[in-house]
Amino acid sequence: MVIKCPHCGVELEAESEHLGMTANCANCQQKFVVTAPENPNLISCPDCGDKVSRLAVSCPHCGRPLLNTGKMQSPLSPPTAASVEDKQTKMVWVDVTNKTKHPWYNPKLSWTSGCLVVVIIFILIIFAIGHSESNSPDEKGTFEAWHMSQQFIKERLKSPTSAEFPAEATEVKEINKNHFWVKGYVDAKNSFGVPLRHNFTASLEYCGKSQWRCIDLNITEN
Q1: Angle CA(79)–CA(99)–CA(84) in degrees, nearest 5?
Q2: Domain total for the chain?
Q3: Quick check: is 153 in a domain?
Q4: Which of 67, 126, 180, 200 has the smallest number of CB atoms closer than 10 Å to its CB?
Q5: Is residue 196 within 8 Å of residue 188, measured between CB atoms?
Q6: CA–CA distance from 98 to each of 55, 85, 93, 105, 222 (Å)?
Q7: What angle do CA 116, 120, 122 make, to 5 degrees?
Q8: How many Cα neighbours within 13 Å face the side chain of 28?
Q9: 54-63, 68-77, 129-138: segment of lowest average pLDDT
Q10: How far apart are CA 26 and CA 17, in angstroms?
Q11: How distant is the alpha carbon of residue 50 from its chain centre?
Q12: What is the enclosing helix (H) or strand (E) of 173?
């Protein structure tokens, strides 16, 4: 075990059987009685001098409070002013660090930006729907023009129920926006019930809202 000379403080080695014997210090040559080394978990009470635990709230011998002795305090003891100040300092430091790390973050600005994005998306959707409706004849106008020309042709035939049109028109042209020229033929019975082929050309105009107008229609029999 390691002991200390009470005179010069030099650490010396001794055996447990030397306890209670008188020894000479190898450093200062002073005599002292060999005693067991002090327990590092014990401290001396400032009043009575007896050994008490470092975690003791008060001395069990004389009752003196040990909270303000500068020694180790109990983990359950209330925090001192110094520890509270240190916690406050750390909290301020963390707050400053977060602001420095994200200088662009602003709750009000983020909320305003989010609303602006939603409004822009809504306007774009409305514009796209309106643009799609206005341009519907341009995208599929040739097919609709061919279909509508058949309706106008049937109104001119003697026997519209006997009309048989081919799957596709001979020719469909888009003259300008919403204006189409169609060329085709239809097999239908005449007033005598004889099946004949009728060639025709039609000029159609799209008026909007699924409404069409026949500008010109010419039918000839073969």
Answers
A1: 5
A2: 1
A3: yes
A4: 126
A5: yes
A6: 38, 20, 9, 10, 88
A7: 115
A8: 12
A9: 68-77
A10: 19
A11: 63
A12: strand 171-176
User: What does pTM read for this prediction?
Assistant: 0.38
| Residue in the block written with tokens 């049937």 | 154
CA 217 – CA 83 distance, rounded (Å): 99
For 188, the 3-state DSSP assignment is: strand
Range of the domain at 203: 141-221
Give the per-residue SS3 of 103-161: CCCCHHHHHHHHHHHHHHHHHHHHHHHHHHHHCHHHHHHHHHHHHHHHHHHHHHCCCHH
Q: How many helices (H) and strands (E) does the chain have?
A: 3, 10
- Full DSSP string of 46-86: TTT--EEETT-SB-TTT--B-TTSSSPPPTTSPPPHHHHHH
Asked if residue 100 belongs to a domain, the reply is no
Percent of the chain residues past pLDDT 90, beyond the cut: 32
In a domain, 31, yes or no: no
CA–chain centroid gap for 166, Å, is: 57
Task: State both tokens at 142.
Answer: 């040739």
In a domain, 148, yes or no: yes
Q: Between these two residues, 138 and 220, which has the higher pLDDT value?
A: 220
